[in-house]
Amino acid sequence: MEFVNHDLTPERQFSEIIYEERPVLNAQGVSVDGLHAVWIALDNQAQLNSYTTESVKEIILAFRRASVDRAAVAVVFTGTGDRAFCTGGNTEEYSEYYAGRPHEYRQYMRLFNDMVSAILSCDKPVINRVNGMRIGGGQEIGMACDFSLASDLARFGQAGPKHGSAPDGGSTDFLHLYVGWGESMASCVLCDPWSAHEALRLRLVNDIFPVLRVNDDFVPNPLVVTDRYLDEWGKIVHGKPKTGQDLADGKELLKSGTIDFSLLDAGVDAMVTKILYTMPDCTIKTIESVRKKKLEHWDKNKESNRAWLSLNMMTEAKAGFQAFHRGSREVGREVDYIDLRCRLASGELWGDELIEAVSPQFRSDA
């Protein structure tokens, strides 16, 4: 039978992401003829798989292509390399082009919103394969997915209030649905990252897998406490960062090993296999029904958030993104928060003079 092609851009070749079809395995581990999984991967390792304007466009089109692929059982959304799934928007682009240009950023945010909506409206189940950091906007597009399977070296969290933004690209809509009100508020405001073990405890992810191999054995993340115990206040500690000599020893162990994603990828394959053994229409209807909880918040807030985030490019976002991108490890990448608050409290107006005064690359005492 000759089918109608519903792909919006059937001839398009992707340049900033990787789009590929991978085998689907049956219960006996044999590849199924005529079916596949679509893998969509951010491919900007030099900038921790942050998304540029162009890659946002490609992600939208990639999810649309996968959505109408009759032979696709599921979509796996991931990043290349072993450092990051995605760390959010490209800070170079934010700092050097969008900062101070709210109308341009408003157009960019239209694309960003469409990217999140493309994930939430995909006609296939979407699995986020978290191969490293899932921070900021990366956390947001990850939570838009239906399932999350992660490396146990991955880290999760927000960065907005630390760098001049608000996590209004999905986290203020989705995070409480995963981890509850209190943990969501703390993460969005304080920006303290979670280890993969903490993310699993909080049910942010479905499962985690060790990826560090030392002497041919897989070793759990050596930088965090992987066993549960009660601290001096009776609170369960699990996945918290190690400190002192334990942390130093963990770093040495991490350096001595190699990264191997075979267990994570086997977990992804196993989930796709489980999806294979379900009725396709019943499965996507179930997923769409569960997604409604996310969409209830997302559709209500995305346009007003887009407008605010655009205007914020004239003030705190301009200061924060330029400080991060133009700063350095030596002088710092964050504004002087106390000085900024004092200047605003005294009535100083926003402008380049104020931004330079609180930015690390301009401060004489940096």
Q: What is the strand and helix layout of this fold?
A:
Elements: E1 17-25, E2 31-42, H1 53-67, E3 72-79, E4 84-86, H2 91-98, H3 102-120, E5 126-130, E6 133-135, H4 137-143, E7 147-151, E8 155-157, H5 160-163, H6 171-179, H7 181-190, E9 194-195, H8 196-201, E10 207-209, E11 212-214, E12 217-219, E13 229-230, E14 236-237, H9 244-256, E15 258-259, H10 262-276, H11 280-311, H12 316-326, H13 337-345, H14 352-358
Parallel strand pairs: 2-3, 3-5, 4-6, 5-7, 6-8, 7-10
Antiparallel strand pairs: 1-2, 8-9, 11-12, 11-15, 13-14
Helix pairs in contact: 1-3, 2-12, 3-11, 6-7
Description:
With 366 residues, the chain is α/β, with parallel strands linked by helices. The protein has 2 domains: 17-211 and 261-312, Alpha-Beta Complex (2-enoyl-CoA Hydratase, Chain A, domain 1); 327-358, no CATH class. Helices cover 45% and strands 18% of the residues. The chain has 14 helices and 15 strands. The chain has helices at 53-67, 91-98, 102-120, 137-143, 160-163, 171-179, 181-190, 196-201, 244-256, 262-276, 280-311, 316-326, 337-345, 352-358; strands at 17-25, 31-42, 72-79, 84-86, 126-130, 133-135, 147-151, 155-157, 194-195, 207-209, 212-214, 217-219, 229-230, 236-237, 258-259. It has a 6-stranded mixed β-sheet, sandwiched between helices. The chain has a 4-stranded mixed β-sheet with strand order 4-6-8-9. It has a 3-stranded antiparallel β-sheet with strand order 12-11-15, with helices on one face. Helix 1 runs parallel beside helix 3 (102-120), helix 3 packs antiparallel against helix 11 (280-311) and helix 6 packs across helix 7. The protein is globular, with a radius of gyration of 21 Å. The chain starts with 16 loop residues before the first strand and ends in an 8-residue tail after the last helix. The mean pLDDT is 95.
